[in-house]
Every structure is written in structure tokens, then in C-alpha cells.
Amino acid sequence: MSTFVMAADQGSTAARATELLDAQMNNRRATVDRMFAALLVVQYIAGIAGAFAVSPYVWQGKERVLHLHVWVAVLAGAGITVLPVLLAIFRPGAVLTRHVIAASQMLSSALLIHLTGGRIETHFHVFGSLAFLAFYLDWKVIITATIVIASDHFARGVFWPESVYGVANPEWWRFLEHAGWVVFEDIFLIWACIFGTKEAQFAATKQAEVEYLSEQEQLKSAALEMALSEIQVASA
Amino acid sequence: MSARRRVIVAGLVIAGLTWAGTIVAAYQVVRRFETTPGVAADASSSWPARSTLRRTPGRWSLVMLVHPHCSCSRASIEELQAILEKAPHTMRTSVLVYRPSEFPAGWERTDVYESASRLPRTNVIVDRDGREAQVFGGFTSGQTFLYDDTGRLRFAGGITSLRGHAGFNRGTADVIQIANAGQGSGKHPVFGCAISTPEKGNVQ
């Protein structure tokens, strides 16, 4: 707290700083919610288009039927997308909204990885999504996303190991090797979230102090004007 | 609680249940689809005499059956490339690409076909109505046969771990190991679209 602010007024300035910070963060997080809602819808459409492009049909000799991946892209993609989009519309800025968005974004990554046949390039979607989630400046969202993607790998490692490791009986700890790279990125993103929040706190405190000092100056000016007018009245 | 608020909460609860249900259902459906292998080959223990493919005596031979429109077979071609890089370069490799006779020429010219054509030391042959696939005893796209220098079957199976998933798997590892060691044998489930069905006794 600045030395310009009297100790007695520090409480009200701190309260104003908290109010400014909350408003700024709420506004920021509501904006990011809306950006993710748009992104999730775009990913949903891209998933369907990708499924049609990569694997449109399953063939049996000369007969063909629509590939399961197309159905999964349409139905599972919709199921993953609908809740976070509704929350972003009706509960923007809420804690639950960004955690559901984080989980859904990771599930979208898992779905896209699957629709592209486990292509290593699609795994970059996970890392890009984590970086985007850091826009919330809430490190707990990064943790939620990490738990979801690690759980996906752990569950598949237990029940469906070939889809992740190519072998039917990998060591139980193999998911940690994959999750380790996500944790590596998390370290920097969590630090960025904490650092960004501190910067926002600092800026809010400064703004509250400026508001306080400006208010004090206005009061002094008003008192001075009143004294001057009293002197003019007395001298007249 | 106002009526509007109740509607919003009810909508979000339904969306939440749909969200959770979709995730569980999608995992189950996709897992079942991708882990269910195609029909295993009914191959004889040696190079089929009825085959029109010529085997070079004294050299190992690898034959792969492919349905050109099977998206899962892209992964099989990728794995075949990995095998060709690590197996002895003297091995003769043939990819038989299925085409029904009533379909026009060029129907088989898909990205799978083009990928197979770019493989080193590999002959890509159009298999009209899957006749050669039938002679070799294979029913599923991605089915791979490895014969030793005497024409004895050493490996029969797929070279992917799931439908459409390239990457390390036991089938590829076995083919590379057997071809390099010059001994041993192996089998592996095959994942891909059907070229024909054994019940019908002939190709479609």
C-alpha cells in the first residue's frame, strides 16, 4: 500500500481494490468463457468434417456403411459440447463454468485424437488447449484439465491399453510418462496464472489508490473553494 | 426460485447428465469397435500353389491384403513402411489391392493405394474380386503373410494394435524380429474392413 494513503483509509482502499479486481477478473473470465464456447462449437464442426474426410465409411467388400467415427463425432461431440456452451451462455464467469469448460476441452482433445487415428500431431491440441485455459488466470482450471486428460490415459491404459501404448499389457505407471509432459507445461502455465493474478492485484490496488487520492484532492478543492467564497463574502 | 431460474437449472442438470453419459457411452462404443478384430486368415502353412503371384525361391516374401477404401488400412501401410525399413532389404513385398470387377478401373486409386505405391521394393497389384486374397486365405484388409525362403508361412495377422492405429504393436515387432532372425513364427489379430467373409465361401 502506498505511503500516500493514510493508514486509517487503507481498509477502504483495500476493499475497493478487491472490488476492482473481482470485477476485472469476472469480466475477463466471462469473455474467455464465451471464446471457449465459440471454440468448442468450431471444434465440434471440425470433428465432424474431419471424420467425414478421414474415415467416412466402413467397407465390407463392395458394400459400405457410415463409419462409427462419423456417428461418434456427431453424437459424442454434441454431448461434450452442449453443457459448457450452455454454462458459458447462462453462467459466464462462474467457477463451475470454467472447470466444466476445461474438462470438456480436454475431452474434445481426446475425441479429436481418436478421430484422427491417434495421430501424434493431434496431441498438440492438448498443449494448445492448456495454454488457452491459462487465459483464465486461474491455476485450478489447469489442474482440472490435467486430471481429466491424465484420467483418460489412465483409464485407457487399464481398460484399453492398445489405444495408447500399442501393447496389451503395459506397466501400470506408463500413463505417468505421458502425463509428465503435460505437467511440464503446467508448471509454467500455473506460474503464469499466479504471476498474472498478482499483476492484476497490483494494478487494482494502484487504481484504488489513485481513486482515493483523486477523491481527497476533490474534497480539498471543494473546501478551498468554499473558504475562498466565504472570504469574498466577508470582504464584500 | 423463479420459474426462469428453475428452467435454466433443470436445463443445466439435463445437459450435465447428457455430458457424463455421452463420455461413458462414447468410450464404450469406440472401444468395442476398435478392439474387435476382423476375421482371421485361414491360410495354409506354405505358399499357395494356386497363386498367380510368383515367389522368388531363396528369398523371404511378404504379402499384404488391402481394401483401398478402408481408412484403417492407412495405419497398416504406415506399419508396413516401418517393417520395410527394418527388415532385410532382400525381402519381396507385394500389396494386393482389392477391386470388385463391376467397379470401374480407378476405383482402387485411393490414398491407401498411392501410399502403398510409394513404399520401397514393393509391388502393388490390383486383386480383381479379391481372388488372390481368397487363394491366400485372407478376409480382412491389413492381413499380412510372411513366408520364409522355402515358402513356409512364418507370420499371419495384422500389423496394427487396433483399427486405424499406427504405432508400436506386437504384429509389426514380430514380423521384423522373425524376418531378421530368419526363424520363429507368429500370429496377431488383424484390424480392418472386410474384403470377403468366410461364411460365403467366396469373395463379394
Show the helix and strand layout.
The complex is a heterodimer of chains A (236) and B (204).
Chain A: H1 10-54, E1 57-60, E2 63-66, H2 68-90, H3 95-115, H4 124-133, H5 139-159, H6 162-165, H7 174-235
Antiparallel strand pairs in A: 1-2
Helix pairs in contact in A: 1-2, 1-3, 1-7, 2-3, 3-4, 3-5, 4-7, 5-7
Chain B: H1 3-35, E1 61-66, H2 73-86, E2 92-99, H3 111-117, E3 122-128, H4 131-136, E4 144-147, E5 153-157, H5 170-181, E6 186-188
Explain what you see.
The complex is a heterodimer of chains A (236) and B (204). Chain A has 236 residues and is mostly helical. Chain A has one domain. Helix content of chain A is 79%, strand content 3%. Chain A has a two-stranded antiparallel ribbon with strand order 1-2. In chain A, helix 4 runs parallel beside helix 7. The longest helix of chain A is centred in the last third of the chain and has 62 residues. In chain B, helix 2 runs parallel beside helix 3 and helix 2 runs parallel beside helix 5. In chain B, a hairpin with a 5-residue loop joins strand 4 and strand 5. The model of chain B has no long low-confidence stretch (mean pLDDT 92). Helices cover 35% and strands 16% of the residues of chain B. With 204 residues, chain B is an alpha/beta fold. Chain B has two domains: 35 residues; 128 residues, Glutaredoxin (3-Layer(aba) Sandwich), CATH 3.40.30.10. A six-stranded mixed β-sheet of chain B has the order 3-2-1-4-5-6. The chains are: A mainly alpha (236), B alpha/beta (204). Chains A and B meet through strand 1, helix 2, helix 3 and helix 6 of A and helix 1 of B.
Could you list some keywords that capture this structure?
heterodimer; A: 236 residues; mainly alpha; 7 helices; elongated; B: 204 residues; alpha/beta; Glutaredoxin; 2 domains; 6 strands; 35% helix
